[in-house]
Specification:
Blueprint: H1 14-17, H2 21-41, E1 44-46, E2 57-61, H3 68-75, E3 80-85, H4 93-105, E4 108-111, H5 117-131, E5 135-138, H6 156-164, E6 168-174, E7 193-196, H7 211-229, H8 245-253
Parallel strand pairs: 1-7, 2-5, 2-6, 3-4, 3-5
Antiparallel strand pairs: 6-7
Helix pairs in contact: 2-4, 5-6, 6-7
Amino acid sequence: MPEERCPAPRMPRPACGLRHSGAVLTFLSRVVLVPLVRLLWRPRVVGRRNVPRRGAVILASNHLSFMDSVVITLMAPREVSFLAKNAYFTGTGLKGRLSRSFFSGIGAIGVERGAGAAAQQALDLGLGRLTEGHAFAIYPEGTRSLDGRLYKGRTGVAWLALTSGAPVVPVALTGTQELQPVGTTVPRLRRFTVEFGEPIDLSHHGDAKSGRARRHATDEVMTAIQRLSGQEEAGTYNEPPTPSVVERVRRAIRRDPLGSDAID
């Protein structure tokens, strides 16, 4: 697909509806950060027209870097919400205030990481944003791929889509792992690519309560992401090292893990 120019995002006028600090921060972040990122990083953005400008939509992306959520939020043609570790919002002092302001400004919602109840709570927050007609970003792999391969998707993305009725736009990120490699704290000036695929309607897979429907719907999304990114498929979940035999058994018997794919 040809590379697209990134027009300035449409902003609400401050006097017409920015009634609280969160909206002000979001407005300012897009006014300031979007042009800055374009100038310094010269991103290649493809398929922006595939993202619906209104209504609920899920942006399902591969995950290579800590910077991915920032990249998606700023390069998308509309405001996007995503879930981030609660630690970004609970710091103290000047550093804590700056962290809260930055992540609030780019659409992050703080949550506790984890599986089980914590993962479902995170998905419920995402569902709330979709119910309100917002765009919501999610990483079906659950965590960053350190070897560049595309891992098996967890079914939280399908649960959100089938429950809300929102279409899913597959997103492929390329080169973002070079922006801030593991172990570094300062972003590097490296060009990256964001490609937004055509929206996918997953409703034909069935009800969100069906594990089979969620699995098949998730696989369709992951296939679309792989076609855009060209990544090698790992064929397994992206799991951290297992600390114990009990944990290995628990993972083996968890047949349909919603996981924490909403949380970065």
